Amino acid sequence: MSEVDQPGSAVVELLGMVAYAELLAFDRMAADARLAPDLPRRAVLCEMAAVEIVNFRRLANRLGEHGADPDVAMTPYETALQEYHELTEPKDWLEALAKAYVWDGIADDFFREVAAFLSPEDRDLVLDVLHDSQYEDFAAAEIRAAIAADPKIANRLSMWARRLVGEGLSQAQRMAGDRIALTILIVEGSKDQAGVQALLKRLTAAHTARMAAVGLNN
Amino acid sequence: MSEVDQPGSAVVELLGMVAYAELLAFDRMAADARLAPDLPRRAVLCEMAAVEIVNFRRLANRLGEHGADPDVAMTPYETALQEYHELTEPKDWLEALAKAYVWDGIADDFFREVAAFLSPEDRDLVLDVLHDSQYEDFAAAEIRAAIAADPKIANRLSMWARRLVGEGLSQAQRMAGDRIALTILIVEGSKDQAGVQALLKRLTAAHTARMAAVGLNN
Q: Which parts of the chain span the membrane according to its record (chains A, B) (predicted)?
C-alpha cells in the first residue's frame, strides 16, 4: 500500500466522492422518476438509477481494497452534496432531466480529469462507472423535443441551468477547501496553477458545448 | 398464442400486476433508503431496490413476448397501488421496513399461489422475480433488534402492520373487481369457492407466522 492508498489519501477521497455521488444520483433519479409524464419514461429513469447503484457497489468494494471504510470515505461529502440537491430540487420532469444533464456532465468531466492522476486500476474503475452516454442522450432528446414543441421553455431551462452551476460551484469550493489530499493531487497532477486554470477552462468549455447542443444559453 | 396469452388475458393481467408492483417496490425502497439511520443501511436498501428494477424489466419483456404492451398491462394497477402507498406512507425507518416486510410477504405469497396456475415458463419467471429472502431477513433482523432495544416499539409496529393489511385488503378488493380474467383464473385454478377460501386462509396463516417471527401481534 503506497502512501496515496492510505485512508484519507487522495485516491480514497476521490473514490469516496464518486461513490457518494453515485448513491445520490441513484436517489435523485429514483425520485425524478415520479415526475415522469408516463410509465415507459418512468421505467427508463428507474432502470438508469439502478445502474448507479451497481457502480456504487464497485466503488465501495474498491475503497475496501484500499483499506478504507466506504462509510467513512463518503461521509465528508454528505452535507455539501445533500445541500446542493436540496437547494436545487427540480419542480418538474424537464427541470429534473436538465439537472441530471448539466450536473452529471460537469461531474463526469471532473472525475475523468482527476482519474487521469490515479493508478491505472483506480483510473479505469472511475472511467468505467462514469455515466454512459445513454442517459445523456435520453435527457438531451427530451429537452430538445420540449424546446421544439415550445421554444419559451429554452429560457426557463437556461436560467435553471445557470442556477444549478452557481449552486454547484459554491458547494464544490466548500468541498475543495476540506479535501486537502485531493486538492493537492489535482494541483500536482495539473503541474501548476496554470494547469489547474486550464482544467477549469476545459470543464467550462465542455459545459457550454453541452448547453448549446440542447438549445440552452449559457 | 393460446387464448390465455391474449392482451387482457389472465397471464397478462398477472404479469402486469407483478411488473407494476416491482416498479413501485423500487420507488418505495429508494424513498425509504432516505430514512435509513446510516450510510451502510441506506446503501443496502438502494441495492435491494435496484434488484426490483431488473425484475421489472424481465416481466416487461415477457409481457412483450405475450404480444402485450407493458405500459397498457400495468396501467390498471396504477391508481389502486399508488393510493395504497400514499395512504401508508411510513414516518420512519422502522415503519418503512415493517411495511416492506408485511406487504411484500403477503404479495409474494399471493403471486406464488397464482403463478401455480400459469404455464411453466410464466410460472417460473414470476417465482424467480419474487423477493428473495435476503430482504425479508434484513427487515426482520432490524425489526427484532429495535424491539429488543425498546419493547414498546412492538405495540406501535403491530398497530402499523394491522393498518397496512386493512388498507391493502380494501385496495385488493377494488382491483379484483376490475381484473375479471385474473379473478376467473384464481377461482378456476382453486377449483371452487372452497379452494379460494383455502387460498385466503393460507395467505392469512403465513402472514400471522411472519408477524410472530419478528415479535409483532396480529
A: none
Residues A25-84: tens digit of each pLDDT: 899 899 999 999 999 999 999 998 999 999 999 999 999 999 999 999 999 898 888 888
Q: Is A50 on the interface with B (CB under 8 A)?
A: yes
Neighbours of A19 (CB within 10 A): 27
Within a domain: B200: yes
Number of domains in chain B: 1
The minimal CB distance from B71 to the residues A31, A40, A54 is found for A40
CATH number at residue B76: 1.20.1260.10
Q: Are A211 and A45 in contact (CB under 8 A)?
A: no
Is the pLDDT reported for residue A155 higher than 90?
yes
User: What's the pLDDT at A3?
Assistant: 46
Give the domain extent around A45: 3-213
Per the CB < 8 Å rule, is A38 touching B75?
no
Cα–Cα–Cα angle for B17, B21, B23, rounded to 5 degrees: 120
- A211, A217 in Cβ contact below 8 A? yes
Question: Shortest CB distance from A47 goes to which of B31, B38, B53?
Answer: B53
The answer to whether residue B218 is domain-embedded is no
Task: State whether residue A24 sits within 8 Å of chain B by CB.
Answer: no
Confidence of residue B170 (pLDDT cuts 50, 70, 90): confident
Residue whose entry in the numeric block shows the C-alpha cell 457518494:
A20
Asked if the Cβ–Cβ distance from B56 to A42 is below 8 Å, we say no
Q: Which chain B residues are closer than 8 Å to A31 by Cβ?
A: 30-31
- At residue A59's C-alpha, the angle toward residues A54 and A63, to 5°, is 145
Look over chain A and give the mean of its residue pLDDT values, rounded to a whole number. 90
Q: Cα–Cα distance between A54 and A48 in angstroms, integer?
A: 10
Count how many Cα atoms sit within 13 Å of the Cα of residue A36 in the half-sphere of its side chain.
19
Domain assignment present for B26: yes
Whether A81 and chain B come into contact, CB under 8 Å, resolves to: no
Interface touch A31/B33, C-beta < 8 Å: no
The helix (run of H) or strand (run of E) holding residue A12 is: helix A10-32
Q: How far is B97 from chain A (nearest CA, A)?
A: 18
Which ipTM score applies to this complex?
0.80
Pick A23's closest partner by Cβ from B23, B26, B46.
Answer: B46
Q: Specify the pLDDT at position A116.
A: 93
Q: Which of A4-8, B113-117, B125-129, B204-208 has the lowest mean pLDDT?
A: A4-8
Residue in B closest to A54 by C-alpha: B47
CB B89 within 8 Å of CB B41: no
